[in-house]
Amino acid sequence: MNQNELQSLLPGVINAVKAAGHILVKRFSSAGAARQDFPTLISAIDANDASVENALRAALLAIRPDSGWIDDEEAGGALPPGEWWVADPVEGNVNHVHGGAVWGVTAALVRDGVPVLAVVYEPLRDRLYTAIQGDGACCNGEKMLVSNKRDLRAALVGTGQARPGEGAAVHEAISASVQTMLNAALLVRMAVPATFEIAEVASGRMDAFWQYTQVRSGLAAGVLLVAEAGGVVTDTRGRPWHFGSEDILLAAPGVHAAAVASLASTSKVTP
Q1: 3-state helix, strand, coil in the chain (%, to 5)
Q2: Is it the case that residue 193 has pLDDT exceeding 60?
Q3: Which pLDDT does position 198 carry in this prediction?
């Protein structure tokens, strides 16, 4: 599949992702569910997914009838050969049900383990991110470029949980990495979901993002955005990233090596 073929798919993917986003806007309340108990929160999260997932899946599979669909949006690890849609019907669902603004819909077409097309829609902030392999990344039609910083001491960096309850080893790795980066970078922030933090790197508003363990749906679109915006995508040790990697680091080229060196000191606690 060449760039022209991917370009021809893009309008349909945008329409599918935006349609899901518009449904979620109608379901959204800034009052949120912060005072609700855990079972009620989970029910609200599941209801959001159910409101858009079937239509999004059907629309994307219609665009590429021979492609596959990943049913478990929290799954990680390598994908089988061929074309797969890696999507999150409500990326940042926990923010949506709490009345927060940072949530949206993501879809990435992955071919033989490599993201080749990505669309991310953030309705409340009116941001549409798109990327095609070899053809750059855009936000609302404007080309994105990663930061040109060359000094980690001047960098805004971030991390976050891939999912709740990942266990002591992952929590220890996150904690150690934050402590390290607090001493190495200008500012460190932690936020979810990963896609929109990664989009900040692609846009140049943030300089690096790393995460221990992986949820494919939180990384597939963002990986292509950063790569096409001129960033570097590796694991935290600086090795080439793939869906089977244990962790991920996305950074502006000028701070990537320093970020790898800093995170290396946490390798003893990395799961």
Answers
A1: 45, 25, 35
A2: yes
A3: 98
Categorize the per-residue pLDDT at 1 as very low, low, confident or very high, splitting at 50, 70 and 90: confident
pLDDT digits (tens, 9 = 90+) for 7-32: 999 999 999 999 999 999 999 998 87
Cβ(269)–Cβ(236) under 8 Å?
no
- DSSP-assigned letters across all residues of 20-73: HHHHHHHH--TT-STTS-HHHHHHHHHHHHHHHHHHHHHHHHHHSTT-EE-S-T
From the centroid of its chain, how far is CA 135?
A: 19
The conformational region for residue 159 under phi > 0 = left, psi -120 to 50 = alpha, else beta, is beta
Residues 59/16, Cβ–Cβ less than 8 Å: yes
Give the type of residue at 5.
E
Residue 123 has pLDDT above 90, yes or no: yes
User: DSSP class of residue 264?
Assistant: G
Whole-prediction pTM: 0.95
Coil/strand/helix, residue 225: helix
Please report the sign of the dihedral spanned by the C-alpha atoms of residue 70, residue 72, residue 74, residue 80: negative
* Distance separating alpha carbons of residues 208 and 252, to the nearest angstrom: 6
* Token pair recorded at residue 99: 């009345």
d(CA 90, CA 47) in angstroms, rounded, equals 10
d(CA 94, CA 105): 13
Bridge partners, 240 (sequence order): 234
Residues 6+ apart with CB under 8 A from 6: 109, 116, 117, 132, 133, 135
The residues that bridge with 210 in the sheet, in sequence order, are 159, 249
pLDDT for the residue numbered 33? 63
